[in-house]
Amino acid sequence: xxxxxxxxxxxxxxxxxxxxxxxxxxxxxxxxxxxxxxxxxxxxxxxxxxxxxxxxxxxxxxxxxxxxxxxxxxxxxxxxxxxxxxxxxxxxxxxxxxxxxxxxxxxxxxxxxxxxxxxxxxxxxxxxxxxxxxxxxxxxxxxxxxxxxxxxxxxxxxxxxxxxxxxxxxxxxxxxxxxxxxxxxxxxxxxxxxxxxxxxxxxxxxxxxxxxxxxxxxxxxxxxxxxxxxxxxxxxxxxxxxxxxxxxxxxxxxxxxxxxxxxxxxxxxxxxxxxxxxxxxxxxxxxxxxxxxxxxxxxxxxxxxxxxxxxxxxxxxxxxxxxxxxxxxxxxxxxxxxxxxxxxxxxxxxxxxxxxxxxxxxxxxxxxxxxxxxxxxxxxxxxxxxxxxxxxxxxxxxxxxxxxxxxxxxxxxxxxxxxxxxxxxxxxxxxxxxxxxxxxxxxxxxxxxxxxxxxxxx
Length: 458
What we know:
α13 runs parallel beside α17 (about 305-335) and α13 (about 210-240) runs antiparallel to α20 (about 360-390). The chain is an all-alpha fold. The protein has 22 helices and 2 strands.
């Protein structure tokens, strides 16, 4: 029975990640990039100024600062997508998969600019009368009630897409491989269940405190862990400095040769399969076009939509272009991708173990724990927001109980099942998000033109 469910979900994920979705995500993102004349990249400096709080106004509508909005969004993306997702991509697709993740990120920066600008432009009110932002609200407020079906589709899929099953699954695997097995502790259902219960306790304390507590915790945890992870990877790269240029070049050459690709062919060729793998893992890593980030950015304390769009676009740059690339290079230069059958977080742990035999795995585990736990907080907020849209604000707290139960599920089931489930639902979330964004894009550009004119005049 379990194998049948696993096969069904794998087939479902493969089906929805077909050519139409690839065109919608990457083709749509490229269209937005060209339509805006590369606007997000032209105002990178201004985006950093906004992020630093230069334009913060405590009287603006919203709940959290630009910085807290970005770190809340990043806390859900910087995590297993970067540490385990990259490892999955390399183990199946080889070094070339990283190149297509980069393409996904560059296009994703444009997509996030538009989706998060819309999250502020078309904020709506929930059943309690509170201001809310996100794809379901900009669909309803921007396109009208006749598009409600798209908003409902996004919110329903968001209930499943926001479940932390992949992060919990990989965190459990990391604890098993790094702490329990090397110390002779038997790993079984009971040990996994205990890990799940500990995570439930930690998560409950934070998520039951609402968005303000989530954003404050995320804004403290995420930057420090990104810095620690960055330093650890640099140590690995310096220790293997002589081969770094070779593998960096291999990322480009293998992207078009697909010599190391071990997955299914797509559109009749291995290259097509490699491209789809890279885009899928890139979307899983930075979530551009999926619609989760606008849920966080829609709560930012600002009355200027373009500012939030510019802050949001920094997400894929930090997440995929920097953190994912560092993980990929660590896996490649240590050679573990060729010498072991390990997958997911175990492959990354092997890379750290080879480079820093005594303490490397434990420092990686510290990063994994913080990244994973912080992502648990953000996803709970996303799912609650989706449930609030569907059945009303006074019922949204029920999602927390469903969410907490899913942590136990993630800790005790297989990687393949978890990653295919989230992949498939993410694909369905992208359909309403990207459709509405492409239709409303000209209104964002009109707003951007007016905003930058005001900035020049002031």
